[in-house]
Amino acid sequence: MASYVITGASRGLGLELTRQLSARSEVGKIFATARGDSPKLQELAKASSGRIVVIKLDVSDEAAVKKAAAEVEIGLAGKGLDVLINNAGIRQFSQKGTSSMENLQESFTTNVLGVHWVTRAFIPLLQKGNQKKIANISSTVGSITYARLVQPIPAPAYKITKTAVNALTVQYALDYENEGFTIFALSPGWLRTDLGGEQADLSVEDGAEATLVKILSSTKEQNGQFLNIKAEGWGEKYDGSNAPW
């Protein structure tokens, strides 16, 4: 059975991905990481008969990332890791625009360096796994093609860092394609979470389900690509075709 690591699993998409994966018979261990305490995640883990293991991890702290990877290695008991889902991230607002934003460094540390540090730390475990998949949760607001369309959204640091995550994804995909890895960026859609807000398009349950469909069905042909979910009734917005860079 496949093993998973999910970062940012304390709430929102990460928590729902953990919940839905734990209901699948083909899934073995799920290492759900969270920066702080999460009663909902702990409750989910207690009801999982040991399938969900909660790991403390702040992705913006490289030392904490290394410690978490060591804990996961112990939990795998000599086996490899199959799938890494880099989901942890922050979205900060800057009402005065790009030139005045003071949060780019913090956003970059969490959203880009965090993905890099986590990926680098878990690559050795993935190399011993069967599936060798890495899904980096991104967003179409980071698409340069869509820059003018999403310009009114007052979160320039978030947009910039998601663009950077996409570029980072491609570099890792090229570096590890000869080892059989499938590494891709994935937009889960605009979801009704604490980050997405109540006005968002999709429920977190529907977004997580569509996200898992993409992750579970991905093959080496998707290596280095920017995937988008498929959701009925949304036309081209969520038609399952690749998102533009």
From TrEMBL:
InterPro entries: NAD(P)-bd_dom_sf, SDR_enzymes, SDR_fam. It comes from the Eukaryota. Gene3D superfamilies: NAD(P)-binding Rossmann-like Domain. It holds the Pfam family adh_short. GO terms for molecular function: oxidoreductase activity, acting on the CH-OH group of donors, NAD or NADP as acceptor. Belongs to the short-chain dehydrogenases/reductases (SDR) family. This is Short chain dehydrogenase reductase.
